[in-house]
Amino acid sequence: MRLISICPSNTELAAYLGLTDDLIAVDDYSDWPELVNNLPRLGPDLSINMDLVEQLQPDLVLASLSVPGMEKNVEELIKRNIPHLVLNPQSFEDIGNDLMAVGIAAGKEKEAKAVVSRYYGILKDYKEKASNLDNRPTVYFEWWPNPIFTPGQVNWLTEMCELAGGRNSFHDVELASVQTSWDDIIRRNPDHICLAWVGVKQSRMKVQHVLKRESAENLTAVRENRIHLLEEQLYCRPSPRLLNGLAKLAVILHPEHFPQPEETDYLTSNT
């Protein structure tokens, strides 16, 4: 199959299904697994070169609506009558469903069922471990610093936080992404602050970005030295790689209760 992915999470999802060798091109931001770095690039995920996509004559394009603005890509795919599948996961269950949908579309249903089974098995293990915890610290996740965006109730990070034995400080806001203020974060006073700025490398984020904000010294997370700089690719992309992020977050919140994260990928070791 001649397969194209036009966002990083879809590229990763294809890899879990053993479809990396079927990919003929990807968006500019796809960077995992390493094999995709040798593929032709189609532009940023919000501005895909559809002329090039059309020239490549794919059997299937894996499109997405996970970021506002991606609908333009879908409109072009429809307009040009290019075969495509649109994914828009907001939860761990959605990701499991997407694994099956892509597997079926690519003729890999048997392989997809095996991957999905392992995927849900890992989630079940973490859910069971977390159910034994009485103390559930609150966590503020920061997706973007100015203006401030954070995940709300309808988001995989809220689920991840629960599975890791914590609680998202914004779990009460019935949105996938919440634009908020620093004053609101001060009022909620989280036990932990986790920075995972979308599209920004871990090395470019600094604890000082939080410490210099007004009244930051009054926050429990600051006083207890609980500001964490996360790898955004393990927290901001709705793919099975979130399992690796979950393993790391669980140890941050409850190092005495959860196992240390593995060096290899949690779902498969052959991607």
Describe the largest sheet.
Answer: 4 strands, parallel
Strand content of the residues, in percent?
Answer: 5-15%
The assigned structural class equals alpha/beta
* Number of DSSP-assigned strands: 11
| Uncertain stretches | none
Q: Name the helicity range.
A: 25-40%
Quaternary organisation: single chain
Q: Overall mean pLDDT score?
A: 95
Number of helices, where a helix is a run of at least 4 consecutive DSSP H or I residues: 10
What is the straight-line distance between the termini? Answer: 18 Å
Order of helices and strands: EHEHEHEHHEEEHEEHEHHEH
Rounded to an integer in angstroms, the radius of gyration calculated over CA atoms is: 19 Å
Shape: globular
| Spatial order of strands in the largest sheet | 2-1-3-4
How is this structure best summarized?
It contains ten helices and eleven strands.
Entry keywords:
single chain, 271 residues, alpha/beta, 4-stranded parallel β-sheet, globular
Descriptive overview:
The protein is of the alpha/beta class. Helix content is 35%, strand content 15%. The chain is built from 10 helices and 11 strands. The protein has helices spanning 8-16, 50-56, 71-79, 92-105, 109-130, 156-163, 182-188, 208-211, 220-223, 242-253; strands spanning 3-5, 23-26, 60-64, 84-87, 138-142, 144-145, 148-151, 167-168, 177-180, 192-195, 227-229. Strands 2-1-3-4 form a 4-stranded parallel β-sheet, with helices on both faces. Strands 8-5-10-11 form a 4-stranded parallel β-sheet. It has a 3-stranded antiparallel β-sheet with strand order 6-7-9. A hairpin with a 2-residue loop joins β6 (144-145) and β7. α4 (92-105) packs antiparallel against α5 (109-130). The longest helix has 22 residues, at 109-130. It is globular and about 55 Å long.
